[in-house]
Write a structure and sequence with these properties.
It comes from Afipia felis. This protein is mainly alpha-helical. It has eight helices and no strands. The chain is 65% helix and 0% strand.
Length: 152
C-alpha cells in the first residue's frame, strides 16, 4: 500500500502548529503522559490507524509504560492492569471514538463514572486528548499513511 499524499498537517504548517498545540494543551494537568498515550493507542486501535498504533505504543514505552498495559489496552475491561479511574477514561475514549454506534454516544453512565474520578480540568485534558487523536487517525486513514515511517 502506498500513501495517497503526504499527511495534510505536514503540508500545512499552520495546521501542524495548531494540532501540535492541541496535543500539548491536552497534556496539561494531572493525567500521566503514559496514560494519554494509552488513550491514543486505544482510539487508534478502534479506528485502525496503523501509523498511530505504531507510534503511540513507542511513545508510551519510552515514557515508562509497562508491557502488560500496552498489550492489554484493547482488552482493558478484562484485565487487572487498570484502575477504576483509568477504566472510566478508557470507556470515554471508546465512546467518543465510536460516536455513530449508538443514539447517545456518551451516555450518562460513562459520564457519571468519569466525574467520580476526575475534576473538570482533568476531564478537559482527557476530552482534548481523545479528540486530538481522532483527528490524527482520520487524516492518516484518509490519506493512507504508512506505519513505520513515523517513529517518535
Amino acid at each position: 500500500m502506498q500513501a495517497r499524499m503526504n499527511n495534510p498537517a505536514l503540508l500545512n504548517p499552520d495546521a501542524m502548529k495548531a494540532l501540535g498545540a492541541l496535543n500539548e494543551a491536552a497534556k496539561k494537568g494531572n493525567i500521566p503522559v503514559t496514560f494519554h498515550e494509552l488513550l491514543c493507542l486505544r482510539a487508534s486501535q478502534i479506528n485502525g490507524c496503523s501509523v498511530c498504533i505504531d507510534g503511540h505504543w513507542r511513545i508510551a514505552k519510552k515514557a515508562g509504560e509497562t508491557d502488560e498495559r500496552l498489550f492489554a489496552v484493547a482488552a482493558w475491561r478484562d484485565t487487572p492492569y487498570f484502575t477504576a479511574a483509568e477504566r472510566a477514561a478508557l470507556a470515554l475514549t471508546e465512546a467518543m471514538t465510536r460516536l455513530s454506534d449508538r443514539a447517545d454516544p456518551v451516555p450518562d453512565k460513562i459520564w457519571d463514572e468519569l466525574i467520580r474520578h476526575y475534576n473538570e480540568t482533568d476531564i478537559a485534558s482527557l476530552l482534548l486528548t481523545i479528540a486530538s487523536i481522532n483527528v490524527w487517525n482520520r487524516l492518516n486513514i484518509a490519506t493512507k499513511q504508512q506505519a513505520g515511517f513515523w517513529k517518535p
